[in-house]
Every structure is written in C-alpha cells, then in structure tokens.
Amino acid sequence: MFDSGVGGLTVARAFMDQVPGFDVVYLGDTAHTPYGTKSPGTVTRYALEGIRFLLSRGAAMVIIACNTAAGVALDTLSAHFQLPILDGIGPAADHAVKATRNGRIGVIGTRTAVDSGVYEKRILAARPDIRVYTRSCPLLVPLVEEGWLKKPETRMIVKDYLRPLKVRRVDTLIMGCTHYPLLADIIQVKIGRRVVLVDPAAALAEHAGAFLDRNPTLAASLPKNGRLQVCVTDRTDRLQATAAAILRRKVDLTVVQL
Amino acid sequence: MFDSGVGGLTVARAFMDQVPGFDVVYLGDTAHTPYGTKSPGTVTRYALEGIRFLLSRGAAMVIIACNTAAGVALDTLSAHFQLPILDGIGPAADHAVKATRNGRIGVIGTRTAVDSGVYEKRILAARPDIRVYTRSCPLLVPLVEEGWLKKPETRMIVKDYLRPLKVRRVDTLIMGCTHYPLLADIIQVKIGRRVVLVDPAAALAEHAGAFLDRNPTLAASLPKNGRLQVCVTDRTDRLQATAAAILRRKVDLTVVQL
Q1: Catalytic: B231?
Q2: What's the CA gap between A255 and A235, in Å, rounded?
Q3: Using CB atoms within 10 A of its CB, is residue A79 exposed (0-12), middle (13-18) or buried (19+)?
Q4: Is A258's Cβ below 8 Å from some Cβ in B?
C-alpha cells in the first residue's frame, strides 16, 4: 500500500477489516508529503520510487491510498509496472454514480487531484449526463494533521469550501482525500444532512477485496499472517501519534530511504 | 540564498533593497516543502543538497532564508562547507534582545524550528535573564500559501496561537518563519498594539549587508549585475503566483533537480 503520508492508514485499516489475513507493507512518503500542492510530474516521480520500494519488499499487488498520486500518476504507474495497481478513484466514482438521485455529484480533494480532472472523467465515462462539481480544499489536510477536528475555525473553513457545492445542490459528495473522512461529521452538517458522503477508503477496500476474489491464484500466493508493517521516509513524534490514532493502537514506524 | 520554498523571496527582496547590486541565485526546495513538519535529520539532508547546488552555481556566500533549516541544520552546514553561511536566527534574536523592555520575548515558528529551541539558546546566550516564550503555529504557512491573508478564519487562528504569549505579556515577538510577516497586521492586532514585531527577513538582510561591509575582499570578488535567478525543485502555477506577489513583479521559476 502506498500513500504520501500516514493518512492512508485509514485505507489499510479498512482493507484489513474487510479482507482479513493478508500481510500489508505500507509505505508513507512522509519525507515528500504533502503531494496535493506539488506538480503532477513530481508526484509521479515520487510514486514511481515508492512502488519500486514496495516491489523490493515483495509486493505482488499495490493499493494506492493517496488520491492525488492515483489521480495524476496511475497511467504512468500501470505502464511501468507489471503487477496489479488498485486505486480508490474508480471505486469512489462508481459508488457516487450509484448513490446520486438528482445527477449532481460533488467532489472535494487536494488542488493537484482536483486539477487533474480525474473524478469527472471517471464519472462521465460511466454516466455522461451527470453534473460534477469539484472544489479543492487545501487547508483541510493541515487542519486534520494538527488534530483540529472539532475547532470552530475548522467548521468555518469547511463551510467556506462547501458553499459552492451546496449552492449547486449536489446530493452526493466524494471525500477525495484520505484525511477528509476524519472530518465527516462536520462535512455532513455543512453540506446537508441528506447528502450521501462517499469515502474512497471504504470503496477502495471493498474493491480490493473483490479483486482478490476474482483472482484466486494471486490471492492464494500471498502470505497471510495478518501483519501490517508501516514504513515511512521521514519520522516525527507527530506522525507516530497520528498513525496510532488512525490504527487505534501503538505502531512502530520504520524509516526507509528510497 | 536557500529556502524550503518561495516564502524566502521576502528575504531576497529585503536583501536586494538594502544591499543593492549583488547577483543572487535563489533556490526554493519546493519539491520537499514544507520543512517545518519534517524531522531535523531530513531537513538537514535537504539543506546539504540545496547548498551543494548553490555551490555548483558559483555561490561564494550563502544566506539561509528558511528559519527551520537554519534552526536544525546550521551547525552541520557550517562544518560541511567552507564558505560563509548566514541565517536570520542570530540577527532576529539580537534585535529582540535590544527591543525588549520587560525582558519577555515571544517566538512563533514552525513546529520543527520551535522544537529545536534555537531561538531560546541564542537569546539566553546574550541575556540569560530574559524569559522566552515559544509557540509553534503550523497552520499559518498553509493559510498564507492559500492567500487567506484577510479571512476571519485566519484572524481566529492567529488569535488562538498567540493567546498563551499574550497571557505571558511578551513585549517583543519574533515572527520566526518567512511567511509570517505577510500576516503582520493581524499578528500586531492580536498580540497587542504595543508589542514590537521582529521580522527575521529584515534582520537577516541587514546582517548580510554588515557582513559584506566587514569582508570587502569577498564583497569585491562577487559579480554585481543586480540579477536575481529563482530556481525551484518543483514548479506549479500557484508557486509562480506567490513568487510574483512577493517580488511584486513577474518572475520565471527555473526548475532544477538536486
């Protein structure tokens, strides 16, 4: 599993809950984080290095937890590597297409992910009549990383960001960044109680489970000791605390150089 | 001149205003930005690479605009390279020591810079009787980079951060990060009208001018066409806009790989 930081551990948790048993090597590229403000070229370069590392650790399948990396680098990565690479954008788009009743879907994400236009592309490929409204929310990742989950400032900022999507009367909202589900309560209040929130982490975990079901030979070949190893390219006390909060248990971050 | 991003262009502007004529090669390490949330070891590694690049471009003197890099890496850098390396921490500390009347100095900065304890160390070395109160303000850099300079949310967050320093009745406040002077108006209101704000960019530019005065042989050997070349390790439209806003003119960012 590859992510730009430790936020993608939400995906690791969902995957290990839904598809128990498989060993997971997680790489959080915390020396280069955040990806959401960097250029597609640079993000692609980092993702290539990250997946090379996972291959060197014996990965036979890669899950990209980071939607920014998936949004800008997936084509390059798929062309570059032979192994299956799964991401949350398609599954979240499919989920949203199924959920919407009025044909108006909102997407929030990092600037780089939103600018890539990848969500619109996937949604419109499935249902060209749907209207997609996107909004980049660059301050939400720092707010979550500061642990400001309940502060009035956070509520105001979320409200600011969601206003244009609310005006467009979206009835389904994709929370297109691993950090956003931690703000789901506030997002739900500000976008409206009846709006369906789509969490790509859950959609991706489900998608990965289905993929393994469809590929029993691959699934049978994978080690199944239920182990999670969390590697990072930079380690601080705060990252350690965030990782433990997401996994709801103590966790040792192993520092690796790419 | 070395910085973690384009925020240090405030230092470049101050330097070129106060000490006109010298050619400046500026490197903003935007592929790895921000430094303020990363570990001292990783920041030191990035700073070593950055200064190696500046040497390869013929630099004969280096100004470190980034207080996080200066705070954690200066000793390593000075041991590693022969050329003079100047930073803003000493000059800002000296300025604050001169300015305080009640012996209570506040310092705001990134988490890594504040945790390094470098401001306290420099202030207490000059005047052991002074009380230093520090506060890390991790959300201010993202807020400035989003251009949220006048928003009510920004005012609330600044007030939150400054409250403990205000309670301690500091009469002098070091804005220990290149981005903070862009919030100087709000900071002044929230910390109190009578508190002296110290801008390390200005202190550093003055210090560099004085250093060149004291080293006329070095100063005479430097090219003086008044040119500024701005190199970055990653380029986006937003960085281009921020750089232009700080320099108050159009600027081409040259992408380089370290």
Answers
A1: no
A2: 7
A3: exposed
A4: no
Q: What is the pLDDT of residues A13-58, one digit of tens each?
A: 999 999 999 999 999 999 999 999 999 999 999 999 999 999 999 9
Q: Among the residues of chain A, which ranges form H helices?
A: 9-18, 40-56, 67-80, 89-99, 111-116, 118-126, 140-145, 152-167, 184-191, 200-214, 216-221, 237-247
Residue B245's pLDDT is 87
Element (H, E) at A108: strand A104-109
A111: CB partners within 8 A, 6+ apart: A36, A37, A136, A138, B238
A107: its two tokens:
């997407």
Name which of B42, B146, B160 is nearest A138 (Cβ-Cβ).
B146
Q: Which of A182, A201, A214, A176 is nearest to A1 (CA)?
A: A201
pLDDT at residue A152, as a whole number: 96
Q: A177 catalytic, yes or no?
A: yes
pTM of the model: 0.94
Q: Does B156 touch chain A (CB under 8 A)?
A: yes
B163 touches chain A (CB under 8 A): no
B95 touching chain A per CB within 8 A? no
Read off the tokens for A43.
Answer: 């993000």
Residues of A in contact with B146 (CB under 8 A): 138-139
Report the pLDDT value the prediction gives residue A245, as an integer from 0 to 100.
87
Q: Mean pLDDT of residues grouped by 10 in chain B (258 residues)? A: 96 94 97 96 98 96 96 95 96 97 98 94 96 97 91 97 98 95 96 96 95 96 96 95 91 94
For chain A, list residues with pLDDT below 70. none
Cα separation values, B67 from A193, B60, B119, B228, Å: 45, 21, 10, 21
ipTM of the complex: 0.92
pLDDT at A66: 96
Cross-chain residue pair B139–A143, CB shorter than 8 Å: yes
Residues in chain A: 258
Q: Which of residues 109-148 of B touch A (CB under 8 A)?
A: 111-112, 138-139, 142-143, 145-146, 148
Using CB atoms within 10 Å of the CB of residue A82, give its burial: 0 to 12 exposed, 13 to 18 middle, 19+ buried: exposed
Q: Does B241 touch chain A (CB under 8 A)?
A: no
Contact check, Cβ <8 Å, A143/B146: no
What are A178's two structure tokens?
């691993």
